[in-house]
Design a protein that fits this description.
There is one protein chain. By secondary structure, the protein is an alpha+beta fold. It has one domain. Helix content is about 15%, strand content about 40%. The protein has 2 helices and 10 strands; from the N terminus they run E-E-E-H-E-E-E-E-E-E-E-H. The strands form 2 sheets. The protein has a 7-stranded antiparallel β-sheet with strand order 2-1-8-7-6-5-4. Strands 3-9-10 form a 3-stranded antiparallel β-sheet. The chain starts with a strand and ends in an 8-residue tail after the last helix. The C terminus is likely disordered.
């Protein structure tokens, strides 16, 4: 993953364990969150199978962000997301301005034995479970 052309330090080290139930729950959670904070959300699929998206979302002290992007790939073995965002009004000045995010994801097979559905291992010692976070439980994985 890169942000404004710089590797954000996760690279190939980040791993996620997603089950069908986790995927469905997180999609629903994301849609609910989006409806609360986004004045506009548009998602379309083009003839080539790419998914294009755009949104304008107000995140309180995080300012207002307008984003456009495209996700390409077969979505079974992998995908690439390119997103460009413009943020204004953020309390932390570095968040304001034009930003470009690139994400390259590859399916590596079923969840390994050291992970359960919902686990995200950032590769830097941080491990959380998004299922527990969405349910309001403890985010850390023991």
């Amino acid at each position: 993953m890169s942000f404004d052309g710089k590797d954000i330090g996760l690279g190939a080290k980040m791993r996620m364990c997603i089950s069908a139930a986790t995927d469905a729950a997180m999609s629903g959670f994301g849609q609910q969150m989006g409806r609360r904070i986004c004045a506009r959300q548009v998602v379309t699929k083009d003839l080539g199978g790419s998914v294009r998206f755009s949104s304008t979302c107000a995140v309180g002290r995080g300012g207002t962000t307008t984003s456009t992007g495209v996700a390409r790939g077969d979505f079974s073995s992998g995908y690439v997301i390119h997103m460009e965002s413009d943020t204004t009004g953020a309390a932390y000045a570095a968040m304001n301005g034009h930003h470009v995010t690139e994400l390259h994801a590859t399916y590596a097979g079923p969840c390994p034995p050291d992970m359960t559905p919902g686990d995200v291992d950032a590769g830097n010692g941080v491990k959380v479970n998004i299922d527990r976070m969405a349910q309001g439980g403890a985010p850390a994985v023991p």
